[in-house]
Design brief:
This protein is mainly beta and 471 residues long. The strands form 9 sheets. Strands 3, 4, 5 and 7 form a 4-stranded antiparallel beta sheet that branches. A hairpin with a 3-residue loop joins strand 32 and strand 33. The chain starts with a helix and ends with a strand.
Length: 471
């Protein structure tokens, strides 16, 4: 044998040896799989193939199993032996089988099945409703949304409408969330703000007019302490009580003295020390020193200054003192006072001012029979809801699809009880529907549901509260 042939023989022998060794590695299954449940996911851990260092293993395949039925496997192009399996259904029991795959693509036998793990939703801590989509912040700082999704307002990288909650991609450390007509925003770690969805007026705040199916950072916002979204604009309250807004501005809703839209944040003129902030359809309001300050569209008196003139900077709400919170709907606004009573003003022909009449008012009127109020929320479809001491929810105004939650479609100019509903901690009103975070940190919704905005896996309206799927 000449030298070249000898070297070839050695190479062939070595190659056969490597092939045999690699194949043998693939025959050894990973060991000791364990599963730890989380919110919509399970973290699976295992040991490297028994009797081998794992040096020739290049990836692992993990297969979820429900009962005895194998689900779609997940392949991890990594030798890490702990991996999260996301996109699982909360409340469903899973076990997991692990296969090792070597560099030649050979797959080992499967491991034994892991222990059973059942994903469970994290507690909800904040909620926001838009026109026909809803979002919550859950403990740990993730955000979940459900409902209509034509423009990516659910933030999960798709335009598929969902009647159950889906996780917003890449959001961590969230503390608050807001929902507009077809966009959403959240305060994330460090007081930055991220937004996603429709951006035709610059309401995502990233300097473009391009829609985004996943969150993008709002330019120049740091230290945000509150976030709110109107129909086509957004606002944030910063530490120190200044307010910045961005997006559509044809009615002066950005509050900076112009009618020029802005795709990046601009400062609301003459406003400091704000302790609460909310956006309606095309107007916004804040609480400053117990008084109300509003700006933007005022066609129905929703700014509460006794006129129907739409100012480009904040004006004082007439006669309102002792306010602790404010909320804005389509063309009306409400304020919660420190004594637990509520005042509303603006458009009232649907009974949404709650004073027993079906008339509008250019200045605040007291909501009838409401005391011990702890939170309020008007909606883009004219109705309003409040939580009172003990956690009961009371709603008033228009009710064509059951947004009042009292089992009827009859409008009411005075508060009626949303029932049956366990005690609620806070709430948010959307377009013809309402949602509440309960004291036990679950979420319930009622009213319009054509786009799955009730989050209960259905598309039928509900005249009474129903639990959101996954809690």
């Amino acid at each position: 044998m000449d030298g070249r042939a000898g070297r070839l023989g050695i190479v062939l022998l070595v190659g056969v040896g490597l092939l045999t060794l690699a194949s043998c590695v693939a025959d050894a299954p990973p060991g000791n799989p364990t599963a730890v449940a989380g919110d919509g996911q399970v973290t699976v851990s295992w040991t490297t193939p028994i009797g081998d260092t794992g040096a020739l293993v290049t990836k692992y395949k993990v297969t979820p199993v429900i009962g005895s039925v194998a689900q779609t496997p997940v392949v991890f192009n990594s030798t890490a032996t702990t991996q999260p399996i996301a996109g699982l259904s909360n409340g469903t029991a899973y076990r997991f089988r692990v296969h090792a795959i070597n560099g030649l693509g050979n797959e080992s036998g499967g491991s034994v099945l892991s222990n059973t793990a059942t994903p469970t939703s994290a507690p909800a801590i904040a909620i926001a409703t838009g026109f026909d989509h809803s979002c919550v912040v859950v403990a740990g700082g993730a955000v979940k949304c459900w409902g209509y999704n034509e423009f990516g307002e659910l933030g999960n990288g798709t335009t598929a409408t969902s009647s159950i909650p889906v996780r917003v991609a890449g959001v961590t450390g969230a503390t608050a969330v807001a929902a507009g007509f077809a966009h959403s925003c959240a305060i994330v770690a460090g007081g930055a703000v991220s937004c996603w969805g429709y951006n035709g007026h610059g309401q995502l705040g990233n300097g473009t007019l391009v829609d985004s199916l996943t969150p993008v950072a709002v330019s120049g916002i740091v230290g945000a302490t509150a976030i709110t979204a109107g129909t086509f604009f957004s606002c944030a309250r910063l530490s120190g009580g200044t307010v910045k807004c961005w997006g559509r501005n044809d009615s002066g809703q950005l509050g900076n003295g112009t009618r020029v839209a802005s795709s990046t944040p601009v400062t609301v003129s003459g406003l400091s020390g704000a302790t609460d902030l909310v956006a309606g359809r095309a107007h916004a309001c804040a609480v400053v020193g117990g008084a109300g300050r509003c700006w933007g569209l005022n066609s129905s008196g929703q700014l509460g200054d006794g006129t129907t003139t739409s100012p480009l900077t904040p004006v004082v709400v007439s006669g309102l003192t002792g306010a602790t919170a404010v909320s804005a709907g389509q063309e009306h606004s409400c304020a919660l006072k420190s004594d637990g009573t509520v005042r509303c003003w603006g458009y009232g022909v649907g009974g949404e001012l709650g004073d027993g009449s079906f008339t509008s008012s250019l200045t605040p009127v007291i909501v009838s029979g409401l005391s011990g109020t702890t939170a309020i929320s008007p909606g883009p479809d004219p109705h309003t809801c409040a939580t009172v001491s003990g956690g009961a929810v009371r709603c008033w105004g228009r009710n064509p699809q059951g947004g009042l939650g009292n089992g009827t479609t009859v409008a009411s100019p005075i508060p009626v009880s949303a029932t049956p509903l366990p005690p609620a901690a806070t709430l948010s009103v959307g377009d013809g529907y309402s949602c509440a975070v309960l004291v036990n940190a679950t979420v319930w919704c009622w009213g319009a549901n054509a786009n799955g905005q009730l989050g209960n896996g259905a598309f039928d309206d509900s005249l009474t509260p129903v639990p959101v799927s996954g809690w």
